Known about the structure:
By secondary structure, the protein is an alpha+beta fold. It has helices at residues 13-39, 45-53, 59-73, 81-89, 94-103, 140-153, 156-169, 174-186, 190-203, 208-221, 224-237, 242-258, 312-316, 345-356, and strands at residues 292-297, 302-304, 321-329, 335-342, 359-360, 363-365, 368-380.
Amino acid sequence: MKFVSLPRIKTNRRGVFSLCLLTALLLSLTAFAQFGHAQQAQLSLADILIGLRSKKVTLAERNGLLSGAVKERGVTFALTPEIETELTGGGANSALVEAIRQKSPKPKVAVVIPAPTPIATPIPVAVVVATPVPAPTPDFMFYRKRADENNFKGEFVLAVNDYNKAIELNPQDSLTYLNRGRTYSNQKNFDASIADYTKAIELNPKDSTAYFNRADSHEKKGNLPQAMNDYQKASELDAGNEAAKTNLQRLQNAQAKTLQPEPKKPETVVVPEQKKPETPVATTDDSNQPKSVELGQLNNLAVKLAMPVYPEIAKKLNAQGKVTVQISLDEEGKVVSAKATSGNSLLRSAGEEAARRSKFKPTLVNNRAVKANGFITYNFVDKL
């Protein structure tokens, strides 16, 4: 038997060490490539909404970064009109919406495979019976999305029911409480809306929108101090929230007016009623005839005393009390001027307007009609 001798490959320690390094490098590159591929997961709707609410960069920069990420990684959801409305409401610009539209999953097209042409000799064919796949169980996002759609349509009862189910599945989502609070507010159930906005703030203390919405519900309930506090907090968290700043200034101005001290009530000189002579004295001397007289309080002298309309803003701010209106009458008893001289500033214009609609008896001096001055007192009391 013959033996074949093969050439011996000489190896040394340096060659073995180089081979080990090459192997380790290839393994590292493979692991890095797998890790990089894992980092490129598609973006969900929640990812984009969270990115839009981030305060680390400007809104324009957020939109730019998210547009690039969508183009590179794609999205897990299809862009519907409802989702587009939610995105634009959260600050998405047209470029980001268009990038999402381009990357939305395309509907799968069913491919019909034609049946094989039958042959003369029948061949047994195995029949595969498809096992029915059960429909997926609705999750948290399903109920919240459907609730948002019903709220948009005005179906508030259906919306609240779905928000309740969404909260049962995920009680830590602040946006669900925020949206259910809006639905309660649409139903004018302000106690419930305030409770939901408070829970949303507890879960996300930096949400300016939750503070603004809670301030609106407090104002509609008449809780003005709480409303001002929430408007102040909303403007602090979001310097661009002009609506919060405007509403805060409006309530502060109204409060300042109610705190103004009432001016001192002017002293009124009451002219005693002139006693008519039993027999009219005809005279042509008008040198002693007064041009006008002061009559004091005129409430009981009115032929028609118009009642003022209680202003709504005054009711909300609990502005009450007496308002004194100084008026001037012509010879026929008609009001020619009316000016409130005391009382709450929120009630004065209503008193002046009512005084102008009133009518009084002519004032007679020496059996001749003269002009007169006096005042009317109105008492504003909210009985509710």
